[in-house]
Amino acid sequence: MNNKPEKLVEYIRDGLVEEEHFGFIIYANTQKILKQYGQDNNYPYFLRSCAKPLQASLMIDYGLDKAYDLSEKEIAICTASHAGEKIHEELIKGLLSKIGLQESDLKCGIHYPLSKTRQNEMLLTGEKPTQIHNNCSGKHTMMLALCKLKNWDIKTYNELTHPLQQAIKKKIYTLCEIDKEYPITKDGCGVPIFSMPLYNILKGYLNLFLDEKYSKLKNAFLNNPYVIGGEDRTDTKIIANSSNIVCKTGAGGLFVTIDTKNKDGFIVKVSDCDMKSREITVIEFLKKLNRANIKYDNKIRTLHNDIVGEIRTCF
């Protein structure tokens, strides 16, 4: 790697720098990069869950939204990295019933909900997690629905050679303006995930969310922030406390934000993947652009709630 990340966040405890978090910010419109922190030198990163809205564009291309009369909330859950709360569970169950498939058809794997409240509730009652609680179950349900619509095999929908995944690859490469091959691997949920430079990821979001053809996807985000994420999810906090902002979190320290009114956006990549630093970077950059003023606690506290330091951005 020949890239040069820039310091984005530092933790100051009693006057000493205790933690430093480095990474990249690229702010751009559809024509050019407007501001950049850190030199990524076009190094490719995997999209991880930032791929979800791009993957979901096929719902509109193939008319899945009309074929199954999808509600805005149902469209939202298909693009979500949800926290596995009851609202998310019910939406997934309803979608599976609508397309005539079972929870066992989902190949996303099983983990406890990301929501600590829901997770604790399940631990106390002895309820076991299922595929539905996986934060990617909405995406997988969408993929199954597309296979049903196109009469594609549902048992191998997670394989790169499957017609669905080939169609997704072609669509993502088009949206992100990719004209060469980059590494491809499997995401945590088992489906193929593509890599590309950060600017191309941002281009993909601009091309998607600023295109009137995909207004249903845009509105699903803007009007259903809790479905998109849930408890303590950064994208939910930002969408719910701003205007005209669409955003999506992704593993590996990624976050993409699009201002659908001003027709620009930015992507953040925190090199060490620290989630708190990523959230602070995104919120503070929104403030820098005068697009949102979201409050958060930047104080470092002891277990007794004594303030011993602060977290601050460096850009």
Give a verbal description of the structure.
The chain is α+β, with helices and mostly antiparallel strands and 315 residues long. It has a single domain (6-313), classed as Beta-lactamase (3-Layer(aba) Sandwich), CATH 3.40.710. Helices cover 37% and strands 22% of the residues. The chain is built from twelve helices and eleven strands. Strands 1, 2, 3, 7, 8, 9, 10 and 11 form an eight-stranded antiparallel sheet that branches. A three-stranded antiparallel sheet has the order 4-6-5. Strand 7 (245-250) and strand 8 (254-259) form a beta hairpin. The radius of gyration is 19 Å and the shape is globular. The model has no long low-confidence stretch (mean pLDDT 97).
Instruction: From the alpha carbons, calculate the radius of gyration and give it in angstroms.
Output: 19 Å
Number of helices: 12
Terminal Cα span: 23 Å
Query: Under the CATH scheme, which class?
Result: Alpha Beta
Q: State the major sheet.
A: 8 strands, antiparallel
Task: Specify the CATH architecture.
Answer: 3-Layer(aba) Sandwich
Helix/strand/pairing category: alpha+beta
Total domains: 1
Looking at this protein, list some descriptive labels.
single chain; 315 residues; alpha+beta; Beta-lactamase; eight-stranded antiparallel sheet; three-stranded antiparallel sheet
How is this fold's topology laid out?
Blueprint: E1 6-13, E2 16-29, E3 33-37, E4 44-46, H1 52-61, H2 64-67, H3 72-78, H4 86-99, H5 116-125, H6 137-150, H7 163-175, E5 184-186, E6 192-197, H8 198-209, H9 215-223, H10 225-228, H11 234-240, E7 245-250, E8 254-259, E9 264-270, H12 275-288, E10 299-301, E11 307-313
Antiparallel strand pairs: 1-2, 1-11, 2-3, 2-9, 4-6, 5-6, 7-8, 8-9, 10-11
Helix pairs in contact: 1-7, 3-9, 4-6, 7-8
